[in-house]
């Protein structure tokens, strides 16, 4: 069966990122109806450097829900903190098939506040 439109859009975004990445890891975002997930991936070695999501106990306790902008911003700050601890300060932002709007934008803003450069 053919790829879904969502898969094709994600592949198109990732293809454009490869051209500008110049060896930087990518900050990949996944958004579901109840949670948001982020991970910093080093594609050169195929390894996840840092990750965070609203499923984590410490975040769950401090958030009202995992599906709002406040939760996304908290995940962005947490993934930035963990990436910096792993020695990563510059990334490329991989929004996947999602528009850069709402929770995805809030996560990006939180990661920038946390010290990631993209």
Query: What is the C-alpha radius of gyration, as a whole number of Å?
Result: 14 Å
Unreliable residue runs: none
CATH architecture group name: 2-Layer Sandwich
CATH topological fold name: Nucleotidyltransferase, domain 5
Oligomer: single chain
Which bin fits the share of residues in helices? Answer: 40-55%
Q: How many separate domains make up the residues?
A: 1
Compressed to H and E, one letter per element, the order equals: HEEEHHEH
List the helices and strands and how they pair.
Layout: H1 5-21, E1 26-31, E2 36-42, E3 47-53, H2 57-62, H3 69-85, E4 92-94, H4 103-113
Parallel strand pairs: 1-4
Antiparallel strand pairs: 1-2, 2-3
Helix pairs in contact: 3-4
Describe this structure in words.
This protein is of the alpha+beta class and 118 residues long. It has one domain (5-113): Nucleotidyltransferase, domain 5 (2-Layer Sandwich). 43% of the residues lie in helices and 19% in strands. A hairpin with a 4-residue loop joins strand 1 (26-31) and strand 2 (36-42). Helix 3 packs parallel to helix 4. The chain is globular and about 40 Å long. The model has no long low-confidence stretch (mean pLDDT 95). Keywords: Ribonucleoprotein, Ribosomal protein, RNA-binding, rRNA-binding.
């Amino acid at each position: 069966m053919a790829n879904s439109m969502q898969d094709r859009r994600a592949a198109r975004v990732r293809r454009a990122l490869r051209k500008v990445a110049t060896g930087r890891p990518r900050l990949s975002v996944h958004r579901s109806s109840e949670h948001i997930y982020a991970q910093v991936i080093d594609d050169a070695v195929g390894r996840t450097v840092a990750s965070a999501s609203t499923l984590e106990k410490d975040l769950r306790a401090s958030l009202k829900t995992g599906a709002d902008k406040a939760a996304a911003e908290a995940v962005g700050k947490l993934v930035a903190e963990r990436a910096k601890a792993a020695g990563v300060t510059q990334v490329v932002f991989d929004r996947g098939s999602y528009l850069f709007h709402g929770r995805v934008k809030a996560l990006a803003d939180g990661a920038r506040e946390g010290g990631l450069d993209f």
